[in-house]
Automatic annotation (TrEMBL):
Entry GO MF terms: glycogen phosphorylase activity; pyridoxal phosphate binding
Protein name, entry field: Alpha-1,4 glucan phosphorylase
GO BP field: glycogen catabolic process
Lineage: superkingdom: Eukaryota
CDD domains xrefs: GT35_Glycogen_Phosphorylase
This enzyme's EC code(s): 2.4.1.1
Chain positions with N6-(pyridoxal phosphate)lysine modification: 707
GO cellular component: cytoplasm
Region of interest: Disordered: 1-26
Lineage of producing organism: Eukaryota, Fungi, Fungi incertae sedis, Chytridiomycota, Chytridiomycota incertae sedis
Amino acid sequence: MPPLPDTKANFHHKRSVTGPIPHQPPKWMPAPESLPIWQKFTAPEGMDLESVQRSFCRHVTKTLARTAHNMDDFAAYQALALGVRDRLIDKWNITQQHHTKMDPKRIYYLSLEFLLGRSLDNALLNLDIKELYRDALKQLGFRVEDLVNEEVDAALGNGGLGRLAACFMDSLSTLNVAAWGYGIRYTYGIFQQRVVDGYQTEFPDYWLNFGNPWEIERLDVTYEVRFRGYVNKIVEDENTVRYVWEGGDKVVAVAYDVPIPGFDTKNCINIRLWSGKPQKEFDFASFNEGNYEKAVEEQKTSENITAVLYPNDNHMVGKILRLKQQYLFVCATLQDVIRRFKKTSRPWSDFPGQVAIQLNDTHPTLGIVELQRVLIDEEGLSWADAWDIVTKVYSFTNHTVLPEALEKWAVPLVADLLPRHMMIIFDINLFFLQDVERKFPHDRDRLRRMSIIEEGHPQYVRMAFLAIVGSHTVNGVAELHSNLIKNVVFKDFVEYFGAAKFTNVTNGVTPRRWLYQCNPRLASLITEKLGTRAWLKDLSQLKKLSVFADDQQFQAKFMEIKYLNKVRLSEYIRTHANVTIPPDFMFDIQVKRIHEYKRQFMNILSVIYRYQRLKGLTKEERAKEVPRAVIFAGKAAPGYFIAKLVIKLINSVAEIVNKDPDVAQLLKVVFIPNYNVSLAEVIIPASDISQHISTAGTEASGTSNMKFVLNGGLILGTVDGANIEIGEEVGEENIFFFGKLADQVEEVRHANRYRRSDVDPKLRVVIDLIDQGVFGDPRIFEPLVSTLTVGGDYYIISADFESYITAQDVVDKAYKDKAGWSKKAVMCTALMGKFSSDRSILDYCKRIWKVTPCAVP
Ligand SMILES: *Cc1c(COP(=O)(O)O)cnc(C)c1O
């Protein structure tokens, strides 16, 4: 038999060097006489009209192999994107070289989700080359505005958590922090939503179909990842044993880099996304045995690991593939982080000074265990030294207090997939509980409550507890939420560790995307009025706008922009949802993931209430009413039956209301399909009022509330999450609060459980209309409606309903006063400085990561 080919050598060319290593001569150096040539031909791409036109045409003809006579908008988008990519890479290289030279502390932001949206417009604006490209492409026969719409969203996230990671990357880059994002390159992002017969249907989001110019494939940056296998115990001498994890299956993680340009800086940082690949391209042994299928199978299973993003928002589903994703992610990431650290030949004791790792929720918590494993099993550190390093490196952001969202993994599942990690988790827990016992002797219930292992059949690993124990700092994402963490969910841990470990960093959003990019007219007005665009890097400067809040001319300009944004959205709704909405209606918007705790159900119930009220009015009375368009968008998790029924109800109500001539001048209802970042950019600048109406104490922060108010839209909301802090900033007169407070909710729930009385009378009117079949077959909605009655109304819709309807009337009244409303809108934009993600990131840098900027000179 001929020898088998060396498949590893054939298929995996691994890099021998990864950039210059300080204090060490590089392995390859250009000959001195070749340096000028290198310098000449690696000079950054030109930033003048001729250069960008030349690179556009070069990409058209050479990269895409097309011609001027064989072009469409998509090809033009591709050529444009590739030219911008070249310029991003120039900046990226300069940044990385600078960081290698300075060797600052690196911040690693670990997130299973990055909801980036589109990149082209953002890159053009952050690099300040949009005008240049507009002129350059105009001469070539294209409009930049058309081409940016050709891009498909990078939708590697579900909602707020993933979008937060994206906003944070923009701020980290803009603030010149030496940061890396790490995540997974899912082949399928969040599903595409279409509405068929009023129901959500899901379609795969194969976003890479036409290539992705915003990633750099690094086929030579790969790491092996092991699953299963066994743990070998090695007795080195009488008091040393060592464990080695061996056997099992190995897959390979391949790096894909996504450059993230900062605004008005030379800095350009990186998000490194991992993709699963088979370790061997092909199992030749199986192949030679004639088992072709088995050989292909192995390839498929490793690629499966990173194939699809789990589409659940704030909901844990314990699928083994998800656990594999989490481990592949942290395993590859830590190898990369450690390799970068080791290039400088520092001792391990330097690691916490050089590396800070932030866990975006519990999804990357296995990283804590993995680092401990590497340090003790592979690097030979003692348990104590290793654990000291681990707990100085990690910090953890909690994103929710919803019980169904808290991650826990069955012990047998973890033990099977990651046997050594399961051992280490038990040890971490043992040492931790021994310490708890010392501090609180004879308190067995406390030990049970605080154990990382939840007892039962099976046992479970409580990931949040593991994350707390393995981190130096734990933060919530808004004041109320952080207080709930401290005083309720993790109370025992505060008593044990002390309050200083637990803190708050209120979320923020990047003003570059969520004002400058999505609302260019308003951004120009602000820049014109303030005489500078410095506000884009220091959002608190917006407060200088407040002196114009009573200025009639300024109000008129501000509201004219709002109107034009409403025209743009109305046009979008006409073409994508087939509903005509007059732009002079009040635009009342609720867009976010569909979830019971967010209470879109309560919103549509109130729309039904309004509908029947309007129908009961005389013609004269109707003339005094404020015309309203109630606009919904958002995805429901494919397995979340009740949430999907809410979408159906919204569409059924829309169908009846929109064709009823009695209310044609007063009420429109629409559900816009496929909510994503680029749709949010069209929707948000067009709101008069937006709804953030979660049951008090359930929405950790919310970030779309910030985006809306920043764009001069008011909030109708509950006293929850960041709504509270927004209210503090903009003033009580510029926000419409209603509903029970967080500390009243338990009382209401208790009463609901034993409720003999009926639901709120206004809500009863609405339920009766649904039951009578006004919105179609009531049997369809029965499971949804019964959550309010026999279901115990966990989200207290009934208890909040009266207050909600009253608040809606207050909104109507306020809207009738045009000047009054305009002033409120201006004040909203003016007073939102706090909610820039730059402020959040500076807060993390100062109080959690202890790092200062490292700007490229
Ligand atoms: C900002 C944003 C979210 C978060 O919305 P919340 O109302 O805070 O839940 C979700 N999805 C997209 C596309 C966003 O841009």
